[in-house]
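Researcher: Let's do a round of design. I'm pasting the structure tokens now; please hold your answer until I've finished.
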């Protein structure tokens, strides 16, 4: 049976891991697909399997999203293909080396992919979504966006960016019928770990989730209207308490003419 189309989902980092599972689940939910990653052969194999299994149309775009020219090519796809209704910003790399052992060029490449490409692709997609009356953006962040101390700090900071950028998008696009979800996975069993520098087998199995379970939970979170989905977190109230503490940082509290009394600046000036 062919489900009626939900439009087209563009998924970055779709050749393996979390992105490949998103491609599978979204095809089964009735989306045609545009799959983006560097490895064309893997993308073609996945595209054929998904077309055979679901009857959906699957287009492949081989691109290196740490390369500006390739990013511009995918931006152009997002700007011109009016069938696109969903963007999954998933492509990303991590690192487990601490600062003193980390290579600055590699950190820069990571920022290019995890932050700059994600930002540019979002900017390319949003105007069309606004013009067509809606759309959805799923940004794959990480739990280290909330706890950057857990892994390499630059990686954590790129994911804090993804989380903060997503929260600002929710706010900025509130009246435009655009859904934004930030997903914060814990450790997921994918090729991410050997590439980042630590085999996933080094972790206790209790803290490692499969990519299948992660994506199924994240899509359930999307269906439930969550803006931030932390699939491992047993008690959603812990996030709600954190978020409500963050909201207590009102502008009146954060921006004032005089420094807070504990810095004794006003007292010094008066004296
Ligand atoms: P993965 O299995 O290594 O997959 C990464 C995907 O990104 C692959 O399809 C890869 O394909 C693509 N990619 C890597 N560099 C690229 C580039 N320069 N240009 C275009 N595509 C590129 O890792 P994953 O675990 O699925 O990670 C997906 C996302 O989840 C990442 O953003 C990661 O930070 C996040 N995440 C992962 C974990 C985890 O524990 N695994 C936890 C939290 C968050 P090609 O090699 O073919 O380009």
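Researcher: That's everything. Go ahead.
Model: Designed sequence:
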């Amino acid at each position: 049976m062919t489900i009626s189309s939900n439009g087209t989902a563009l998924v970055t980092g779709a050749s393996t891991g979390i992105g490949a599972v998103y491609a599978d689940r979204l095809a089964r939910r009735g989306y045609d697909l545009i799959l983006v990653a560097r490895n064309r052969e893997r993308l073609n194999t996945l595209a054929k399997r998904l077309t055979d299994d679901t009857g959906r149309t699957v287009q492949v775009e081989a691109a290196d999203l740490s390369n500006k020219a390739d990013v511009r090519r995918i931006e152009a796809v997002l700007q011109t293909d009016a069938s696109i209704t969903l963007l999954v910003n998933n492509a990303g790399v991590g690192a487990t080396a601490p600062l003193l052992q980390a290579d600055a060029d590699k950190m820069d490449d990571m920022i290019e992919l995890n932050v700059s490409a994600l930002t540019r692709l979002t900017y390319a997609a949003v105007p069309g979504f606004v013009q067509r009356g809606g759309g959805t953006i799923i940004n794959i962040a990480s739990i280290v966006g909330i706890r950057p101390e857990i892994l390499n700090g630059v990686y954590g900071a790129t994911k804090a960016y993804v989380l903060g950028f997503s929260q600002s998008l929710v706010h900025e696009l509130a009246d435009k019928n655009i859904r934004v979800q930030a997903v914060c996975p814990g450790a997921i069993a994918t090729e991410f770990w050997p590439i980042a520098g630590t085999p996933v087998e080094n972790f206790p199995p209790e803290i490692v989730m499969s990519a299948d379970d992660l994506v199924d939970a994240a899509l359930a979170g999307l269906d439930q209207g969550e803006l931030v989905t932390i699939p491992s977190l047993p008690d959603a109230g812990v996030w709600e308490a954190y978020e409500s503490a963050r909201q207590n940082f009102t502008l009146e509290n954060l921006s004032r003419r005089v420094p807070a009394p504990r810095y004794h600046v006003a007292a010094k000036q008066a004296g």
